[in-house]
Amino acid sequence: MRLVAVDPHDLTAVTASVELLNAAQLVDDPDDHPGIPELAARWLEFGWDLDPETRYLYVNAEGQAVAVLEVDLPRRDNLHLVWGSVVVHPEHRRRGHGTALVAELVRRAREAGRTTIWLGTAEDDLGSRAFLEANGFHYASHDARRKQVLSEVDSTAVDALHTKAVEAAADYVLERLEPPHSDELLAQLVEVTEAINDAPMGDLTFEDEVFDVARLRDIETAREGRGDRIYRLAARHRETGGIGGHTLVVVNQLRPEHAGQGDTAVHRDHRGHRLGLLLKIEMMRWLAETEPQVTSISTWNHADNRYMIDVNEAIGYRLSRVFAMYERTLTD
Ligand SMILES: CC(C)(COP(=O)(O)OP(=O)(O)OC[C@H]1O[C@@H](n2cnc3c(N)ncnc32)[C@H](O)[C@@H]1OP(=O)(O)O)[C@@H](O)C(=O)NCCC(=O)NCCS
């Protein structure tokens, strides 16, 4: 058995990994969109913030790819952490491959001096959860995926919420921001971006993420490298001129009908003015004007993030599935 790193520029290798992951997804998570090789290649090249994870194909003696291992070692913060992913092809399960890959992940974590490993699975996938527990991991947190199917949204109800939110947010003006953002604007966005650290993280061992202008610029560069069209709305406080809240949605040119919700955050000094709700409804209107082909938007929240989930449910997001995050601590 050998592990072969998937070079983002080698479309044959990327495609082999996407085909394996799609075969697993059909069994494990049929509600998700199948992966697209070109899009996966861009993720592997650019990552979230120009610090991508590494993907490996696990190949057996016959030259067949039987599993995919992903290893993400954050470099800007959370230097104790390895965020992994292990997916075994459905036809090759219960033969010890998953166990071998977790052992390899642990070996790599130790080699890199990291002490915490995260692996996730669907909360209702009891087999994968049994596997993780057998491998020394414990349940630490959970995140929910929701989808807003635009044709099913009750627009009368959303309009009524909008009217109330506009009244509550009278001290703010909304601005549509499209990249490239100036350094001055990015500097103004640093504080509100950091507000995402206030979202719950369950029992995961996790430090606040560190944001500065350089990182926000790298996140923007990575999004553009992946082919995302970026829509960001900011709520600016009229009196002080500061940005009190923002929300971001991306539409990828390779999958333009399914948009992805990025961060929505309201700085703690600006909470209580229905900014979250207003930003999200204004974003729906902006997308309807500029990306009319979008049929659905996906969003992820910590499953206990009641405030954000209430906002999302009010504007028509519905639960797709809950995912569990497991953690293992390496003690020596
Ligand atoms: C979880 C997963 C990685 C396991 O891979 P695998 O190669 O089948 O795992 P192994 O053969 O090494 O299993 C080792 C032990 O884990 C437990 N286990 C694994 N799958 C299980 C299942 N479906 N039900 C119950 N126990 C299971 C068993 O104790 C098993 O030993 P056994 O086969 O002798 O009974 C695989 O099912 C998978 O890819 N799932 C989808 C992706 C995912 O959720 N990954 C989460 C972990 S990152």
From TrEMBL:
Q: Name one Pfam family in it.
A: Acetyltransf_1
Query: Any transmembrane segments, and where?
Result: none
Q: Does the keyword Cytoplasm apply?
A: no
**Which UniProt keywords are listed?**
Acyltransferase, Transferase
Q: Which InterPro entries match?
A: Acyl_CoA_acyltransferase, GNAT_dom, YpeA/RimI_acetyltransf
Annotated ranges, domain N-acetyltransferase:
1-165
Answer yes or no on keyword Membrane.
no
Q: Which Gene3D superfamilies match?
A: 3.40.630.30
- Under which name does UniProt file this protein? N-acetyltransferase domain-containing protein
Which species expresses this protein natively?
Answer: Microlunatus aurantiacus
